[in-house]
Amino acid sequence: MQARQAQVSQVVVTASQMRDIEGRIFAAGMPVAALMEKVAGLISLRVQAVAGSSVGIFVGPGHNGGDALVVARELHFRGYEVWLYSPFSKFKELTSQHLQYAQSLGIKCYHDVEQLPDCDFLIDGLFGFGLERPITDHIAVAINHLNQWGKPILSIDIPSGIHTDTGEVLGTAIRATHTFCLGLWKLAFLQDQALEYIGKAELIDFDIPGADVQAVLGNPPQIKRITSVTALSTLPLPRPAVTHKYKEGHLLLICGSRRYAGGAILTALGARASGVGMLSIAVPESLKPILVSHLPEALIIGCPETETGAIAHLQLPENTDLSSFRAIACGPGLTVDAAPIFPEVINSEISLVLDADGLNILADMGTIPTLEKRQAPTVLTPHTGEFQRLFPDIADPKSDRIKAVQEAAVQSGAVVLLKGARTAIANSQGAIWVNPESTPALARGGSGDVLTGLIGGLLAQAATKEIPVEDIVATAAWWHSQAGILAAQERTELGVDAFTLTQYLMPVIKNLGNN
Ligand SMILES: NC(=O)C1=CN([C@@H]2O[C@H](COP(=O)(O)OP(=O)(O)OC[C@H]3O[C@@H](n4cnc5c(N)ncnc54)[C@H](O)[C@@H]3O)[C@@H](O)[C@H]2O)[C@@H](O)CC1
Ligand SMILES: Nc1ncnc2c1ncn2[C@@H]1O[C@H](COP(=O)(O)OP(=O)(O)O)[C@@H](O)[C@H]1O
Ligand SMILES: [K+]
Question: Residues in domain YjeF C-terminal (predicted)?
Fold first, then answer.
C-alpha cells in the first residue's frame, strides 16, 4: 500500500496522457459507469469530511458533470440539502442519465445561476480535463458570479476553466478553495499560475493500474514530482564509517562583494548544512574577517578586489587550482564587476552551479555559446527575471514554466532550475522534476542564496557517485522548501528570514528519522 502511494505521488500527467490511461482501463473491460461510481463515491466521502450541510453543485456537459451528479445523489441520501445548477441543455449520455435520476429524487436543477439558493458550500463539476476552448458568454458570467459568492468551492478534478497542462486560465475559471484531483496529479497542479485557483489540493487515488501508467508515460516518465522518498534516496546518508573530509566533497564558493557581504554568508551557511566535507570560500579580501567569524570551519580565500569591492581575480592558495575542488558554486552577491573571473570559472572541468550575478554575467557573455565550452556539468538556478535574460528566445516562462525550463535545458545542455512556488528542474534530455510542496514564506531576499550553497554542497559530496546531477538538484530544492515549511509552521510565514531558514535544514532530515 505504501509502495503504491509512493509511486503514485511521483506521477504527473497531461490531459492527453490521462485520456490514454483511461482509454486502456476501459478497453480492458472496466465499465465507464462503474468507474464513475467508484470515483464519485470516493469524492463524496472526502466532501463529507470537509464541509457544511447544504450544497450547490454545478454540473457540466461531460463526465466531470457526471461525477458531480453522483456526488449530488450520494450527499442527498446522506441528508444534505442539495441544489444543482447547470447552464447546459445537452449532456453526454451517462451524465444525462444521472441528471434524470437526480431530478427524479426531487433534487432541483436550476438553469439560471441567480436562482441557486443560498447554501453552505459549492461543488464545481463544470469541466475537468475535457475543457477544449476558452469559456465565454453566459457560462463565463456565471463562473464570475459564483466566485464572488465568497462560499467555499470544492472543485472536482481541476477548477473549471484551468488548462490541465499549462495551468492557464481559459477565459475565466472557478477559484476553488479545495480541489480533488482524480487518479493522478495533472500537470496544472505544478504550474505557478494555477495555484491560486486550485486552493488546497488533494489526490483521490482510484486504483489506476501501475502497468497502464507505465505503458503511457514510459519508464522513467519524463516529468516527475519530487517526494521525500526520491529526495532522501540521493542524500549522502549514512556516511561510510571510514572516510575523511576530502572524501566527503570539497566545495568552492565564489561569492560576495563589499556591497553584498550577506549573500556570501547565506550561501556558505546553505553549503554548511549540506554536510560537505570541506568548504572553501573565495571572497574579496575585505570580506575575509566577517566570513571567518561566521564560518570558523571554512577556508576563507581573500581575493584582490576591484575599486567597487568585487573580486578582481581568483587568487587560490599555493598548489591549488580549480581542479582541486569537487564542485564550484558561483554568483551570489558577486556584482557584475566580477565578470573578469568568469572565463577561468567556465573553463573549469568540475561541476559548476551558477546563480544570481553568475547568471547575469553568463547572460552578458551569451548563455549558449559560453556553455558550449564546458565539459563538466553546469547547473543554472534562475528566477523568472534571470531566466528571461539567459534565454530571451524562449517563450514567456510564466505562461508554461515546465515547457520553458525544458527548452532551456535542452538548448543549453545545462541542468536548469527555474525558481518559483513550484520550482522545476530540467536536464538536457528534457527530463523534469517538479517540487510539489513549498511555502510563500520563502519569497524573501537571500533564500535563493541558501539554495545555491545547498546544491553546491550536495554536488561536491556526490561527485564520485553515479547519481544524475538533476536528481541531486531536485533533492536540494525539496530540502530547501521543506525547511521553509517547517520554519513557517513554527514561526508563521513571516518568520522565515534566510538566516533562520538555514537553521531549519537539519531538523527536516532529523524529523524524517534519517539521522
Ligand atoms: N469516465 C469516467 O468514469 C471518469 C470520469 N472522470 C471525470 O471525467 C472528466 C473528463 O470528462 P470529459 O472527457 O467528459 O470532459 P469534461 O467533463 O471535462 O468536459 C467535456 C465537455 O465539455 C464541453 N466543453 C469543453 N470546453 C468547453 C467550453 N469552453 N465551453 C463549453 N463546453 C465545453 C465538451 O464539448 C464536452 O462535452 C474528468 O475530469 C473527471 O472529472 C475521471 O476522473 C474518472 C473516470
Ligand atoms: N511563492 C513562493 N512559494 C514558494 N517558494 C518561493 C516562492 N517565491 C519564491 N520562492 C523560493 O524562494 C527562493 C528565492 O530565491 P531568489 O529569487 O534567488 O532570491 P534571493 O536572490 O533573494 O536569494 C527560491 O528558492 C524560490 O523557489
Ligand atoms: K471541475
Answer: 228-512
